[in-house]
Amino acid sequence: MSDEAVGRAPPRLAGKGECLPDTVLSRAVVVRMRRRAPNERVEPFRRRVAAAAGHALRDRLAAWAAGVAPRLTAWPAMPDGVVDRQADVWEPFIAVADAAGGQWPELARVTAVTVVRDTRGRAEDASMGVRLLSDLHKIFEGYDVRSTETLLKELHACPESPWAEVRGKPLTDRGLADRLRPFGVRPKVVRLGSTTARGNAAAFSACVRMSNVPLCDRQMGMW
C-alpha cells in the first residue's frame, strides 16, 4: 500500500512560433515576445551584474508574502470572461494583486481579461492550422506539386471544412500563405507540365504526413 502525494508547480515552457497546443495554452499565462525593432536599444543582461539587486528584490518579496499570507484565504472576485481553467490560472495573481492594493487589483483584472482573450483567439487559430494541414495532406495525395489556385479550389470544396467561408469570405491565396507561414511553409514557383505557377511541392505533403508527431515538432521540422 502506498500513499499518494499531490504536488503542483508552475512550469515554464518556451517555444518559437505558435507551437504550443491549445490544451497547454488554456492552462497557461502566455507571455509573447517580439523581435526588437532596428531603432530600439536594450541594455545587455549580465547575471553577475544583476544578481545582487535581484536577490534583494527576492528577499523583499519573500518578506512581504510572509506578512500577507494569512489574508490570502478568500476567493478573489474574478473578472467577466475569465472562467474555468483560465480562472484557476489567474486566481493566484489576482489574489496577490488584491493583497498589494492600490492600482494592482484593477491592473491585474484588466491584464487577465486581455491575455485570456488573446490566448483564446490564438488557440482557435492554432486549431485551424492543424485542420488546414490535415486537409492539405489529403489534397496532395497522388501529386508531386499543386498550384496555389488548385489548392484553394480543393480547400473550398472540402466537405465540412471552414475554408469556403473564413470570416465571411472564401480563403484567399494571401490567407493561405499567412496560415502556413507559422509552419515554415511558403509558396514558391513550381513547374506544372509545360507551365509554371505559384504553389507547393510534395515535400510539404511529406511533412504533413507525420501526423503522429506533436504539433510543435512538426512546425520545427518544416522547411
Instruction: Determine the structural class based on helices, strands and strand pairing.
Output: mainly alpha
Find the count of extended strands (DSSP E, 2+ residues).
Answer: 3
Biggest sheet statistics: 3 strands, antiparallel
Provide the spatial order of strands within the biggest beta sheet.
1-3-2
Q: Considering DSSP H and I runs of 4 or more, what fraction of the residues is helical?
A: 40-55%
- C-alpha geometry: elongated
Distance between the termini: 52 Å
Mean pLDDT: 76
How many DSSP H or I helices?
8
Q: Tell me the fraction of residues in β-strands, as a range.
A: 5-15%
Order of helices and strands: HHHHEHHEEHH
Rg (CA only): 24 Å
Unreliable spans:
205-223
Structure description:
With 223 residues, this protein is mostly helical. The chain has a domain at 129-221. Helix content is 50%, strand content 7%. It has helices spanning 22-25, 47-68, 84-100, 104-140, 148-157, 173-180, 202-208, 215-221, and strands at 145-147, 188-192, 195-201. A three-stranded antiparallel β-sheet has the order 1-3-2. Strand 2 (188-192) and strand 3 form a beta hairpin.
Outline:
By secondary structure, the protein is mainly alpha-helical. 50% of the residues lie in helices and 7% in strands.
